[in-house]
Write a structure and sequence with these properties.
With about 375 residues, this protein is of the alpha/beta class. Helix content is about 35%, strand content about 20%. The chain has two domains: about 5-105 and about 365-370, Enolase-like, N-terminal domain (Enolase-like, domain 1); about 110-350, TIM Barrel.
């Protein structure tokens, strides 16, 4: 019987010149780190995952060595315990799914239900630009085939001069592209960078912004309140016709159960690389569907995380859009996907998934070796 014989974790750093100044950070990012997880089995196959840093995993390898890699539910339970005591080690779950697919000869999207082999994308911007530049970027996305775009609002980290200036950028986009694109807004209030101690919006703050967004026909309003303000989310959702989205950094699956039961959100956005892995988020996707809510993963990681989220979205189905981190020149597929032999490519606003076993990815081993920490 196939057994796990080794787990290998490596860390890599890509220098960014020019730097990337993310709207949710405010400080120029001069490098982009990636953690790669490899799970080797007794037949010489290797499963690959990536995402969070795997903090807290060291010393727990023995809980997986000698086990059948296809026992995904068992491994999920162990990883959930590790998360309680340490960090988010969900990239291992991605690697196990990749390996399970290679063992069975099936792509992960088919193993998850096989509803589709492609997903529709929305272009997810990350840089704060002036209104004219934002409108120009929207035109660029539209010409590339994207029919939806997410616009970042200023977090307290700085950038534009507050949400009213953010609104001006959004108005410029709508004036330029009309109704040819769906527009989403990320309010950046759900969480903060470690150094940022400013308070998030109150429910009344968020409602004021929602009222300003309503005439612009916004598809969803993302993270308008602190991630723990469930009562505020539910009240905001009841007070505005806008869809309220969130959950990208929610860590525990039971918190999604509470968000669903409390009717706090219209759109749930967890990321397989950051919470629950594919095994856990399959549960969330099905809970959301049964409650009549939308599931569409956050995927602002490297190309391995984007691809893993795409497999889940396609396999489960009923995902209207998947996040496509894309804001050139600062955030290009070449930067985002540097661990891969070839960057992922969108075609007319869609990502078509491979039919090869597992996740269907190939690492650029030479580059990873050169960028190893």
């Amino acid at each position: 019987m196939t057994r796990i014989v080794a787990i290998e974790i490596s860390h890599h750093r890509l220098p960014l010149d020019p730097p990337f100044k993310a709207s949710w950070d405010g400080r120029p990012r001069r490098h982009f780190d990636a953690t790669i997880v490899r799970v080797h089995d007794s037949e010489g196959r290797t499963g690959i995952g990536s995402g969070d840093l795997m903090v807290g995993f060291e010393g727990n390898e023995e809980l997986f060595i000698g086990q059948d890699p296809r026992h995904l539910e068992r491994h999920y339970e162990v990883l959930s315990h590790i998360q309680f005591h340490g960090g988010r080690c969900w990239p291992l779950d991605l690697a196990l799914w990749d390996l399970a697919g290679k063992i069975t000869g099936e792509p992960v999207w088919r193993m998850l239900g096989g509803r589709a082999d492609r997903v529709r994308l929305y272009a997810s911007s990350g840089v704060l630009r002036d209104p004219g530049a934002m409108a120009g970027q929207a035109e660029h996305f539209l010409a590339a085939g994207f029919r939806a775009m997410k616009v970042r609002f200023t977090s307290s980290a700085g950038g534009r001069g507050g949400w009213r200036e953010d609104l001006a950028a959004l108005e410029a986009i709508r004036a330029r592209v009309g109704d040819r694109m769906e527009l989403m807004v990320d309010c950046n209030q759900g969480w903060r960078m470690p150094w940022d101690t400013s308070a998030p919006w109150t429910m009344k703050d968020a409602l004021e912004v929602a009222r300003a967004l309503e005439p612009l026909d916004i598809h969803w309003m993302e993270e308008p309140l602190h991630r723990g303000d469930r009562r505020g989310m539910a009240a905001l959702r009841a007070a505005t016709p806008l869809r309220i989205a969130g959950g990208e950094m929610t860590r525990e699956l039971h918190e999604f159960r509470d968000l669903i039961e409390g009717r706090c959100l219209d759109v749930l956005q967890p990321d397989v690389a950051l919470v629950g892995g594919i095994t856990g988020l399959r549960r969330v996707a099905l809970m959301a569907r049964e409650a009549g809510l939308t599931f569409t993963p956050h995927s602002w990681t490297n190309g391995i995380g984007v691809l893993a989220n795409a497999h889940l979205a396609a396999g489960i189905g009923d995902v209207p859009f998947l996040e496509w981190p894309f804001d050139p020149p600062e955030w290009s597929p070449e930067r985002r996907d540097y661990p891969l032999a070839s960057p992922l490519r969108a075609e007319d606003g869609w990502l078509t998934l491979p039919h090869t076993p597992g996740l269907g990815l190939t690492l650029d081993e030479d580059r990873l070796a050169a960028l190893a920490l």
